[in-house]
Amino acid sequence: MTIPTRAAGLDALHDFVPRAGADYRRDRNHDLGPSRTNVSGLSPYIRHRLVTEAEVVDAVLDRHSLHAAEKFVQEVFWRTYWKGWLEQRPEVWRRYRAEVRELLAGDLPDGYEDAVAGRTGIDAMDAWARELVDTGYLHNHVRMWFASIWVFTLGLPWQLGADFFLRHLLDGDAASNTLSWRWVAGLQTRGKTYLATTENIARYTDGRFAPTGLATDARALDEEPFPPATPIPDDEEPSAVGSRVGLLLHEEDLEPASLLAQLGSSAPPLATAAVVADASSRSPAGASSLVVDFTAGAVADTAARTHDADGGAATILDSAGAAAVLDWAAAGRLDSVLVPYAPVGPVQERLDALRPALDGAGVRLVAVRRRWDSRAWPFASRGFFPFKERIPGLVRR
């Protein structure tokens, strides 16, 4: 069970650090079942920023050289890369959202219900579907195999597979999940697909699974072109906030101490603080009970750790809608609300709807983007390999 607290995330980080070097490089692609020691298990904490990417990389590099821990550090930066890439192409997310809504509202394709219930007759797929639903996690290599079999063997829409993952993964986020599925299907890197094979699965599961009857060809899917990429927007200036400032945290970033420390002397005294989340916004079909419960636990933990200038604990808002935020802002007589910047995804959609509502009430919404993102995202304009060359410089900064 993954405990949804910052303390548990830091404990997991401490336990993993000794294995982040040669051990991780050697064993990371193997999946021998749900009891795993060859991977960190940190992704649910990093995804919600209960523990930040900078904390993870700093802890690993305190123990290992960048050369020794290169593979693990690159895995941390993969999430950053995906977010930066999608930030420059938000229409990819919008189209995916629209396609999922359309697919779920219509007649579901043959085989879909069996696939998500673990009844395909492919033993590996069925075990992985059950593991995902039961635990909220799948090994990264398994995610690739699963997506490949879903698209090329079962012939199911990739969007429904991505939606299935996003509803059930504790670490599911808009960028990593959507773009990874697109990559398997040959849409992300045009024409380059990923084909799951019996031999590869048998090798990296130590013979636990060796499914037969898999597709032997992975022909890339096609789609209408997207608009050109747009530059990463400039950071907002938090020093322009008013005299009554509230901090509003959300499920994309639940570590307020380092966020506020980034502001330095320009950090305003907080008149009040609140935490809000809506895990069900991941999909038109909502989210699993595991995801909802993990998110609620993370919110409760964050509220207990977050205080206003007088030492008062943060409020947990009972709704993520604009009305609840407006009521909280009015009760605190706020003229400004600070929020962590939310990358492209459901939370950004919520904040985009909230901003004009707050403006109408005379309250300014100011998004604070972490330096980690501001420094790295502009380099995510092309493929990962040009981005990878930037990692040593980003780590030094």
UniProtKB/TrEMBL annotation:
Ranges for domain Cryptochrome/DNA photolyase FAD-binding: 72-195
InterPro entries: Crypto/Photolyase_FAD-like_sf, Cryptochr/Photolyase_FAD-bd, Cryptochrome/DNA_photolyase_1
Lineage top rank: taxon: Bacteria
Cofactor: FAD
Gene3D superfamilies: 1.25.40.80, DNA Cyclobutane Dipyrimidine Photolyase, subunit A, domain 3
Keywords: FAD, Flavoprotein
Annotated PANTHER family: CRYPTOCHROME (PTHR11455), SI:CH1073-390K14.1 (PTHR11455:SF18)
Protein name per UniProt: Cryptochrome/DNA photolyase FAD-binding domain-containing protein
Species classification: Bacteria, Bacillati, Actinomycetota, Actinomycetes, Micrococcales
